[in-house]
Amino acid sequence: MAKILVTGGCGYIGSHTIVDLIENGFTVISVDDNSRSTPYPVSGIEQITGRRIKNYNVDLKNFDETRAVFQENPDIAGVIHFAAYKAVGESVIEPLMYYENNLFGLINLLKCVQEFSVPYFVFSSSCTVYGNPDDIPVTESSPVKKAESPYGATKQMGEEILSNFSARANTKSILLRYFNPVGAHPTCFIGEQPVGKPQNLVPVITQTAIGKLQKVTVFGNDYPTRDGSCVRDYIHVCDIAHAHTLALQYLMDQRNKTNCDIFNLGTGNGVTVLEAIQAFEKVSGVKLNYEIGPRRAGDVVAIYANNDLARKELGWEIKYDLSDMMRTAWAWEKKIKAAEEKVKSN
Ligand code: WQD
């Protein structure tokens, strides 16, 4: 069974991808310094798959420690790279921390990929590289526009680094541009674990519904959209996860068209913030306390994916709809609350 190194394996998308990789016959190791995650998902992965994976608690900015992982695992057949800071707002306040962490980490990792001749590399990119698109839905050929934040800039630079690296090295890469990953694994053994107050819409919704947050503030309802609130392409984290397995298989089958193919990972459906709130209320039966507030700086008005390429070339099929996304996100939030209450009662 081919061994895959997943960086950020204790994170939200990383942990769900590890489950999918194991279910599709891969052996997996993780590298995660737990600076933005907890080791908990390792046990969640084991509860789902019956397999205990090893996580190396290593900061990718430490080249020697990163290299030692490759030295100990000379049979790594592929790398999937998730480990990066991803909070848009934080990146505006701490740009150097984002450039250092996201880019130094990537470069150290690629130095090891080159030294140990790892043939396949999958990069976690984001629809944020499109900025505010002129035309929607966006295709992979839509223009990459000036990043709205340092976070977005690190994704754009990461794509450039990989494009140049893959042209020279013997490593074939794939860039996966996620739209808005939401939801949790149907078993509820793993899910999104925001560190501190959540920034993203769906965890804000579920934490408001469970009573951790007082209300949801809708950041603007005066946009030129069907109900005035921003449009996004929400996609279930398990659909995103399976696309990574398919991307690896695509590379291993030598089906790649270039040394650095790009795929959009979105459902192709645009959903407004107010529609997302209504979908949650319908699925949960909880009336959400929300109010309309001012626009959030850096927000894109509307974006959603043309996902034809991923469906055609990777054989990717969307399995979860918006109700499933809200249902699993809500079930996960209730699971977290029950676990917290159990700890309190002990
Ligand atoms: C979605 C919509 C907000 C919170 C970012 C990154 C992207 C990816 C996902 C990493 C927007 C509105 C939100 C709230 C609100 N990151 N909103 N009230 O900004 O689309 O994408 O996170 O993979 O790369 O750019 O996601 O969930 O923050 O916002 O009204 O309390 O919800 O204005 O329209 P975003 P988000």
Observed structural traits:
single chain; 346 residues; alpha/beta; Rossmann fold; UDP-galactose 4-epimerase, domain 1; 2 domains; two-stranded parallel ribbon; 11 helices; 13 strands; 42% helix; globular; binds UDP-4-deoxy-4-formamido-beta-L-arabinopyranose
Q: What is this structure, in a nutshell?
A:
The protein has 346 residues and is α/β, with parallel strands linked by helices. The chain has helices spanning 12-23, 40-49, 63-72, 88-93, 95-115, 150-168, 201-210, 237-252, 273-284, 308-314, 322-345; strands spanning 3-7, 27-31, 54-56, 76-81, 120-126, 172-178, 180-182, 216-219, 231-232, 234-236, 260-265, 271-272, 290-293. It folds into 2 domains: 3-182 and 236-265, NAD(P)-binding Rossmann-like Domain (Rossmann fold), CATH 3.40.50; 201-230 and 269-341, UDP-galactose 4-epimerase, domain 1 (Alpha-Beta Complex), CATH 3.90.25.
What report would you give on this structure?
The chain is of the alpha/beta class. The protein has two domains: 3-182 and 236-265, Rossmann fold (3-Layer(aba) Sandwich); 201-230 and 269-341, UDP-galactose 4-epimerase, domain 1, CATH 3.90.25. Helices cover 42% and strands 16% of the residues. It has helices spanning 12-23, 40-49, 63-72, 88-93, 95-115, 150-168, 201-210, 237-252, 273-284, 308-314, 322-345; strands spanning 3-7, 27-31, 54-56, 76-81, 120-126, 172-178, 180-182, 216-219, 231-232, 234-236, 260-265, 271-272, 290-293. The longest helix is centred in the last third of the chain and has 24 residues, at 322-345. It starts with a strand and ends with a helix. 49% of the residues are buried. It binds UDP-4-deoxy-4-formamido-beta-L-arabinopyranose. The site of UDP-4-deoxy-4-formamido-beta-L-arabinopyranose has 19 residues, from helix 7 and strand 8. UDP-4-deoxy-4-formamido-beta-L-arabinopyranose binds at residues 86, 88, 126, 128, 178, 180, 199-201, 204, 216-219, 230, 232, 273, 296, 299.
